[in-house]
Amino acid sequence: MSRRRPGRPLRDLMEDPRWRVVPLAARGLWAELSVLADRQPELRSAAADGGIGLEALSAHLGALPCEVLGAASHLAHHGAVRMLPSQTIILEAY
User: Fold this and answer.
1) Residue 90 sits in a domain of what CATH number?
2) What pLDDT does residue 94 have?
C-alpha cells in the first residue's frame, strides 16, 4: 500500500507556472478547491451536477460571494477553473 505524503498535491499545485501570476486570494481559493476536490471529485466534473455553486463555496470559506467571485474570475482567466453561467465553479486543473 502506498502512502501519500501530506501536502504533496499542494506542492504540485505551487509548481504550476500559473501559480505565480494569480493574486493571493486566487491562490488561496485554488488551493482550497484542490483540497475539496480530493474529497469531492464532482468538483472536477462538467456533468450537470458537477462543480460547486458560488454561494455554497462562499459559505464553506466564510467569505463574501463577491470576494470569491473575484478570485474565481482570476482563476478562470488563467484556465484553472471554469465558471458556468449558473455561477457554478468547476476545477480544471489538479
Assistant:
1) 1.10.10.10
2) 59
> At 85, is the secondary structure helix, strand, or coil?
coil
Task: Measure the CA–CA gap between 86 and 93, rounded to whole angstroms.
Answer: 20
- Is pTM beyond 0.85? Reply is no
Domain count, the chain: 1
Cβ contacts of 42 within 8 Å, gap of 6 or more? 49, 50, 51
Residue 48 lies in a domain: yes
Q: And the C-alpha cell for 53?
A: 455553486
Does 62 fall in a domain?
yes
Is residue 83, in this structure, part of any structural domain at all?
yes
Cα distances (angstroms) measured from residue 86 to each of 5, 24, 51, 70, 76 = 36, 25, 11, 16, 14
* DSSP secondary structure letters along 3-33: -PPTTHHHHHHHTSGGGGGS-HHHHHHHHHH
